[in-house]
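Hi support team,

I'm opening this ticket because the web form for multi-chain structure prediction keeps timing out on my end. I have pasted the exact lines I submitted so you can reproduce it. The total is 543 residues across two entries, so I didn't expect it to be a heavy job. Is there a limit I'm missing, or should I split the entries? Thanks in advance, R.K.
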Amino acid sequence: MKKAELVIVGGGPAGLSCAIEAARLGAKVLVIDENERPGGQLFKQIHKFFGSREHQAGVRGIDIGTKLLEETAILGIEVWLNSEVVGISKDKHIWVVKDGKTSLKVEADKIVLSTGAIENSLNFPGWTLPGVMGAGAAQTMINIHRVTPGDRVLMIGSGNVGVIVSYQLLQAGAEVAAIIEAAPRLGGYGVHTAKVRRAGVPFYISHTIKRALGTDRVEGAEIVALDAKWQPIPGSEFILDVDTICVATGLTPLAELAWTLGCCFQFVPSLGGFVPDHDQYMETTVPGIYVAGDIAGVEEASTAMEEGRLAGISAAAALGYLSGEERERRCGEVWDRLNSLRSGPYGEGRRKAKELILSTEGGIACDRAI
Amino acid sequence: MTVPSDHPGVKLSGAPNREEVRNCPGYPGEEFAKKGPIVFIECVEEIPCNPCEASCPRGAIKVGKPITNLPVLDAEKCIGCTMCVAACPGLAIYVKDYTYSETEAAITFPYEYWPLPEKGQEVTLVDEMGEAVCQGKVLRVANPKQYNHTPLVTAAYPKEFFEQVKSMRRLNK
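Hello R.K., no limit was hit. The queue was backed up. Here is the completed structure from your submission:
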């Protein structure tokens, strides 16, 4: 059996930032990731990040990912790739399946779950046709595999994911026929919507998809307007000539491991649904189990990296690598940066939702922990 | 389309309209807009972001704290050097020069598409809604390392369209 002081499940921006922070403080860290390459979604994010200099504003996600991997290598952090964490027991024994065939057990002192989130799907007639895909899938195709999913795309959802992926589809050479939004207002940052608007992409607010056309693949999309009560307006339907339909209707935290561990959860719709309850050190209600990044509430890579640092500092302190006083000082610095990212009209809601989680004791738990 | 920016604005049509742009503190103001090369910052929403502030060699852009403050332009200090145009992660800044020539104005905007236009090429210039406004001639395409893959295109176009033009139509691959 393998032993590790700190095991981090998921090597995205949160997990790698956590690993780097903890390893710098002296902890022996093992990162386990199911993908063939660590970095999570960062290598798909070819746009420049917002924030301030300490948040690496102006740097593209892909370059932030490269930097994190370099630091991980310099610090000699052990990373297992193509390795899936299948289950974790209460005494922190981790069952890992490597390369889809080897079963391994790892014993950890502390565990950080930074498993990210999964895209929400949207059900409509024709939604199983080839050509209907998550916006994240389209982004993987264009930015990782360098293949456009189609020539003319309909994007469903005007949040930041929808508009950023639309922009990147344009950059990849595809046309974006429209971005539709069921709400009466656009969701994403104005600078993102403005970028695609001036590239000629029309937005349809208070519109949704009625069905995808086609028998073997997407050959069009029927769109319908919604009234003030979000009900389809008969007679308002029209057809868009598209061969690809991307769904960008939000994300849900990937928290199965936290459920099976018996962590308490809070239901916070603005953070993506059920979120493991955690304190300001990112520790869940199960001692020694931490969360960071989208699993702790869907936000963005910049906040995920800061939460990863919090979890890394906290876990290292719990392992004895840091005094309580020093933990407070370092976490305080990270919290200042987090609060500045969670400010303004877009961030305020997330800050309040996070505060609610920190101030609420307990929550819903699954009583079938293994 | 020659009527400037008659649409309901950033949260409904995607792009800020004329009023939103003019009310934003990154707008140089009537007095300075046509005096010479100057920056227009179309940053109308309070998002946590401030690279424009540090990019300005003359200290003409102030964000301060909290970083969700809208960037405030000191039009007297700005010389339209374009450093902030490539630095803005939101691609929300451009430089215009009303005094480029007797009959033409010039615009420098960020352009992250392939292929890039070439110097001397005639391109279709568009407004913030992507609608064609007029033809323009590319004067310069700059893509040095420090722009971090955000090339800047400078084009000349008839003065009468000074305000409407924001970018160019993408070129076919």
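A quick check on our side: Chain B has one domain: 16-168. Let us know if the file doesn't open in your viewer.
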